[in-house]
């Protein structure tokens, strides 16, 4: 393994002035782009704009005269209704965070500050007919976070869940 040597201000200035991007410099130095970005900030190296004025002009020229298909279109009430339904706003809107499906349900006692609750918690609550207790968690049996079929969900206490995952790390068996 190669010993890490932080880039110097002169080294970064040299590569950047030759036209290399931060991504290319990071690849050459075998570090993350964020690391290069942080060194640019640390050394007060002014970065180039993401798009040059020439690039912006080319894009603008290519789009000139083209109109968005919706712009100026007259929509029927039926079409407007369909469009508002398809936006999926309001209760029931689904998003995914860290592989888990979340549902917008702001009135739920366990909803986060944005009004979302995990779908697997909601499914388990519907199945058992009550809210989950603060010490209860829902475990995905097959380990797939977005597989929220009731047969794949198991209600556990936090300590049972933690013990289970610790035993897996030590080579234990699945339930």
Q: Would you kindly provide a written description of the structure presented here, covering whatever features stand out?
A:
With 175 residues, the chain is of the alpha+beta class. Among the domains are: 9-42, no CATH class; 94-169, no CATH class. It is built from seven helices and five strands. It has helices at 9-17, 22-29, 33-42, 53-63, 77-86, 119-128, 158-169; strands at residues 94-97, 100-104, 116-118, 136-140, 153-157. The strands form two sheets. A three-stranded antiparallel beta sheet has the order 1-2-3. A hairpin with a 2-residue loop joins strand 1 (94-97) and strand 2. Helix 2 crosses helix 3. The model has no long low-confidence stretch (mean pLDDT 80).
Task: Give the helix/strand layout.
Elements: H1 9-17, H2 22-29, H3 33-42, H4 53-63, H5 77-86, E1 94-97, E2 100-104, E3 116-118, H6 119-128, E4 136-140, E5 153-157, H7 158-169
Antiparallel strand pairs: 1-2, 2-3, 4-5
Helix pairs in contact: 2-3
Mean pLDDT reading: 80
**What can be said about the biggest beta sheet?**
3 strands, antiparallel
Number of helices: 7
**How many individual β-strands?**
5
Strand order of the largest sheet: 1-2-3
Helix amount: 40-55%
Shape: flat
What's the oligomerization state? single chain
Q: What structural class is derived from the secondary structure elements?
A: alpha+beta
Q: Beta fraction of the residues?
A: 5-15%
Termini Cα gap = 40 Å
